[in-house]
Amino acid sequence: MKIGDNWVSLNALQTFQVAARHQHMGLAARELNVTQSAVSHQVRALETSLGVPLFDRRGRRIELNPAGQRLLRSIETGFADIASTALSLSTDAFSGQLSVAVPVSLMVEWLNAKLSEFLGRFPGLSLRLSYAERTMTTLPADVDMAVVFSAHSFPGCTVTPFMRTAIFPVCAPELSRGSLPMDPEILKRATLIHEDDGDIWAQWFASRGLEQFRPQREIHAGSHHDAVAFARNGAGFAMTDWFLGGNTLRSGRLVQAFGPRELDYDGYYIVTRMNQSPSSPALALAEFLVREAEAATNGQA
């Protein structure tokens, strides 16, 4: 494409987008299946064509400067528009029923709106939804695609990273009594709310170098959504992340109890069958959700 008096290749823009996402030339090269020097060459060619540097280089690491941040936002918006248009041109290609299994918490907090948006583009496509258990390790015969938490080996399937999660404790504002961050010692006299068998809280205690103690009371909720609902209603302290709990935190109905420090805790993955047609609705939905998750991570959705 021509920008001013210079030509800029779409390949250079795509390479820049991947390098910007990873903040690392080597990781970008691995994703694009090219050499690191090829990535560096494409980025420098783009910078030369535009007449401005896009990264601050710090040894092996790279960091977007303000110009790079502006360009990245425009590229991601443009690529998303192209993908959306390409999908809409294929409206007649998708019909019948698409069967999807998803975690209930992700469905309630984020996925419902995205599935509705996707289906709005394909009037002939029906959806059959089921809930994926945390222990799922095989894709049921009647399911075309699944979103699962934590990577497992799914025989005959492709497992694609979807979104990473970084978790932290939250509580209702009234429990903090206006004093934030709180002292973790308060948990000895509080209620811990679990969405699992206690492993998430155990990892958080370990990450803080704290000896895990038995709280005054524990609630074992059936899901992340239920655990956060208990916390929102003042029942105790639960764990969440910005992806699932961001809206509630921004609204002030929950607060980060012990400061902004977060614990990197696995993530969500999309599972599709290896033998599916490249033009199948399941793969189209998977690509759509990956783009939407990236946009949400970058504050666009």
Automatic annotation (TrEMBL):
The superkingdom of the source organism is Bacteria
Xref: Pfam families: HTH_1, LysR_substrate
What PROSITE patterns would the database entry show? Answer: HTH_LYSR
Extract the signal peptide range.
none
Q: Does the keyword Transcription regulation apply?
A: yes
User: Which SUPFAM superfamilies does the UniProt entry name for this protein?
Assistant: Periplasmic binding protein-like II, Winged helix' DNA-binding domain
The UniProt keywords, alphabetically, are: DNA-binding, Transcription, Transcription regulation
HTH lysR-type domain location: 8-65
Q: Name one GO molecular function term.
A: DNA-binding transcription factor activity
InterPro entries named among the record's database cross-references: LysR-type_TF_proteobact-type, LysR_HTH_N, LysR_subst-bd, WH-like_DNA-bd_sf, WH_DNA-bd_sf
Q: Name its GO BP terms in alphabetical order.
A: DNA-templated transcription
Family stated for the protein in its record: Belongs to the LysR transcriptional regulatory family.
Checking PANTHER family in the record gives: HTH-TYPE TRANSCRIPTIONAL REGULATOR (PTHR30537), HTH-TYPE TRANSCRIPTIONAL REGULATOR DSDC (PTHR30537:SF32)
Q: What is this protein called?
A: Gcv operon activator
